[in-house]
Write a structure and sequence with these properties.
Elements: H1 2-9, E1 30-37, E2 40-52, E3 55-68, E4 71-85, E5 88-98, E6 101-110, E7 113-118, E8 121-125, E9 130-131, E10 145-146, E11 153-154, E12 156-163, E13 166-173, E14 177-182, E15 185-192, E16 198-203
Length: 204
């Protein structure tokens, strides 16, 4: 179960002007994935995108539960808000509950960069820092990345597996993910947990 927790804890058309990266925003304004493990649907991860002036607002919700019969062995919920302007995060908020343990992040852009306040401590990050939120392919291009749930900096080892209309990336380091994009838009996620089980995102 600890292995599963480790693997999972790391998750109107939108006018693309000045928001980053516009190609990663689906024309429908939303993305919804079912989360599957060992042939069982255990939850969902949804994204909603909307424009507000020059800003791009991204709202995420993750809800999952692992059950055996009628007993819930593990649950995880998260709500996240990203506000982008001119290619940078100017506001970030996250509240998560992992098996009863709460974590949160509040981020604001300032003159010196992105100020993070969260359950894992406070820190100043560079202005181009962004959360590892999966949908945004720009997070795989060498910019500073922080954990979406607690704001701690992450060290990722990104390998391009395929780069065409369908692009696939293996993300190693602190995680073990395979991310797939079609024309920059997220289409699938495969997570290998330390116990060898696989968690997959399937579009709905």
């Amino acid at each position: 179960m600890k292995a599963l927790i480790f693997a999972l804890a790391l998750f109107a058309c939108v006018a693309p002007a000045a928001a980053a990266p516009p190609n990663s925003v689906p024309g429908s304004g939303s993305l919804v994935f079912g989360i599957w493990r060992s042939g069982t649907r255990i939850g969902a991860h949804s994204y909603a995108f909307r424009a507000a002036g020059d800003d791009l607002i991204v709202e995420q919700r993750i809800e999952l539960a692992v059950r055996v019969a009628f007993v819930t062995l593990y649950h995880y919920t998260s709500k996240r808000l990203e506000v982008w302007r001119n290619g940078h995060i100017v506001r970030y908020e996250s509240d998560a509950d992992q098996a009863g343990k709460h974590s949160d992040v509040r981020g604001r852009a300032g003159e010196s960069g992105l100020r993070i306040r969260g359950s894992a401590g406070n820190r100043d990050l560079p202005a181009d820092a962004m959360p590892f939120g999966l949908w945004n392919r720009a997070a795989l291009r060498g910019v500073p990345v922080f954990n979406a749930d607690d704001g701690t900096p992450m060290k990722l080892d990104v390998t391009i597996v395929e780069d065409d209309m369908l692009s696939r990336y293996h993300v190693g380091g602190e995680v073990n993910y395979m991310l797939s994009y079609i024309n920059d838009v997220l289409r699938g996620v495969s997570i290998v947990a330390p116990d060898g089980s696989t968690v997959e995102y399937v579009p709905e």
